[in-house]
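To: structure desk
From: M.T.
Subject: fold request, one chain
Message: Could you run this one when you get a chance? Sequence is below, nothing fancy, just the single chain.
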Amino acid sequence: MRAGQDGRSHGSDVLAIERLFLSFGGVQALADVSFAVREGSITAVIGPNGAGKTSLLNCVAGFYRPQRGRIAFGGEDITRVPPDRRPALGLARTFQNIALFEGMTVLDNVKLGAHAHLKTNVFQALAYSPAARREERRLREEVEREVLDFLEIEHLRRRKVGSLAYGLQKRVELARALAMRPRLLLLDEPIAGMTEEETEDMARFILDIQEQRGVTVVLIEHDMGVVMDLCDRVVVLSFGEKIAEGTPAEVQANADVVAAYLGRSHA
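Reply: Done. Structure tokens follow.
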């Protein structure tokens, strides 16, 4: 049993979702969704296809703006904060479909994630001043030491991303998000499409990110074995509404959750 699954509490709430409503035309994507994420935890958001899971992550990341409701991160209201400002606050994410620059190297892709924390101004960067060069060198060393080594892809740093296998590309995307030095990491189906070995590796890295780096993780995942093994809390969505929340064991035994996945007659 993992720490956090035995009833021991984590820190204070790092993320609070309060009565979130999101619609696209006449389609209700999220309806009155509320829950909180404890700092230092791993929380899964699960549900059938079309339940609103990715829409929820897009609201937290700032790509969607809800019509009603509030999103608080670290106690601050970020509901109206533009998405490009959220990484500097400590929020990073990966995507359901890999969003990397295939013609660039692994190192250059991952370095892009750390640019949210660069201190040189645009004129220094354009002129590639001594200050910009020093910061660029420190950034590269930090990425190689703290991120590529951590995710065991340092030997691939000069490879073009497009030449890598799918599982390694997913790891590079995780590395780019980790280079943002997040306090909260949003993972949209980080294990989808992976082999059994790749799944085990990714699950291990997610645990290490939480346990060794103290990063809070919110993930969307369809592999219930991974969810039950990794997560402290599980939030279940169905047709845009939250139908259950609790520990993995509590959610697994919830009749509404079984009905949402299998249909009422099977439940």
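Reply (cont.): The radius of gyration is 19 Å. Let me know if you need anything else for the meeting.
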